[in-house]
Design brief:
About 40% of the residues lie in helices and about 15% in strands. The chain is of the alpha+beta class. Among the domains are: about 110 residues, no CATH class; about 100 residues, no CATH class. The strands form three sheets. Strands 3-6-7 form a three-stranded antiparallel sheet, covered by helices on one side. Strands 1-2 form a two-stranded parallel ribbon. β4 and β5 form a beta hairpin. α1 packs across α12. It is elongated and about 115 Å long. The termini are close together.
């Protein structure tokens, strides 16, 4: 890019000075004309603006609102004082590369039922970025576990790909949810099927939904040959009938009636070297690689040890300490306003530069 005198002008910030989430959300609230004028100054972004710029030039505002309006409605809900404070670029105090061998760390994020839609979206932003960071390294990372409880309350982008590829990067994924209909409601039928068909280990307690029971009873446990014995007694003789037929290994009714502490499921198989006898013969019934990996059992927890461990938990330290609620609101509001002023100043500077060209 060149100025009015013909001298080449280099960007002051190649990695972006205002590329964090708060500044982007604030920038999206500007007029369409302002947004396009600013983005067109970036040669890499300009080609992507073609369809939007054409609609704006032809004054097809309804079409433009259909393409961008919905995005602005949803993103505007994320623009809060708290989110601006946490996601501000000046607050880069934590590296999401939690599996870094030089600096391994833990990250715990939680949701709030009263603000589930907003906090859930922000948590998903953190989690999806974390996944991108840890699911790399060609196996040189510290082994890490990504544990998500109440999965339907959080949107996990391309979760099936993570489950399928993370093992090579020493990443394990544990997902918890109540019932399949709950998962389908938030991820859709296709998304739900991708998740339940990609996971290698399944552990379930008592279930109630028909879809969940059918999946566990039919797909996970399946049917096996079962021997049924029938006894008939009459005046002259007693008859015993033995019949073999295919029947459910664990019926749906048995899963729905499981008491507290009982679990069922299936674990992923590991590679086992095939052991053969004389002349390469193999006994399938006794071979290790053909033994079932399904289970139906009762858990055995030492509650005394668990309570002892819980009593030794140390409270999490507070990273940010405010003297009072009033000071907290004042600091957060000041930061909220500052982000908007940063965006206004950036736009003004770019517009002045465009007039000089």
């Amino acid at each position: 890019m060149f100025d009015h005198s013909g001298a080449e002008v280099q960007p002051a910030y190649w990695l972006g000075k205002y590329s964090d989430m708060p500044h982007i959300l604030s920038f999206l609230n500007e007029s369409y004309q302002t947004i396009f004028e600013v983005l067109q100054t970036d040669n890499e972004v300009a080609p992507l603006l073609g369809p939007f710029q054409t609609a704006f030039a032809n004054k097809a505002m309804e079409q433009l609102e259909g393409m961008i309006g919905t995005l602005r409605v949803y993103t505007s809900r994320l623009a809060t004082k708290e989110s601006y404070w946490i996601f501000h670029k000046d607050g880069d105090d934590f590296d999401l590369k939690v599996s870094d061998p030089k600096n391994p760390s833990y990250l715990l994020i939680a949701n709030d039922p009263e603000m589930e839609s907003i906090i859930g979206a922000l948590n998903a932003l953190i989690l999806n970025r974390l996944v991108t960071r840890v699911n790399t390294g060609q196996g040189k990372n510290v082994p890490v576990s990504i544990i998500v409880d109440e999965l339907p309350t959080l949107y996990f982008h391309k979760i099936d790909r993570l489950i399928g590829t993370a093992r090579s990067n020493k990443v394990s994924v544990a997902l918890g949810f109540q019932e399949l209909p709950q998962l389908e409601a938030d991820y859709g039928k296709v998304g739900m099927q991708k998740i339940i068909t990609t996971v290698g280990n399944v552990v379930s307690g008592s279930a109630r939904a028909k879809e969940t029971l059918e999946w566990l009873s039919s797909d996970i446990f399946g049917k096996v040959v079962q021997l049924k014995k029938g006894v008939t007694i009459d005046r002259d003789k007693t008859s015993i009938n033995l019949n073999e037929n295919m029947d459910s290994l664990v019926p749906a009714s048995k899963i729905s009636d499981m008491p507290t502490g009982w679990i069922c499921g299936q674990t992923a198989r590991d590679f086992v070297v095939t052991k053969t006898g004389m002349n390469g013969s193999m006994n399938i019934q006794e071979s290790e690689e053909f033994k079932t990996s399904k289970f139906y059992c009762k858990t055995d927890f030492d509650m005394t040890e668990i309570k002892k461990e819980e009593s030794e938990y140390v409270p999490l330290p507070k990273f940010y300490k405010f003297k009072s609620k009033e000071e907290r609101e004042r600091i957060l509001y000041k930061n909220f306003v500052q982000v908007g002023e940063d965006v206004k100043a950036m736009i003004k500077e770019i517009q002045q530069f465009r007039t000089m060209m």
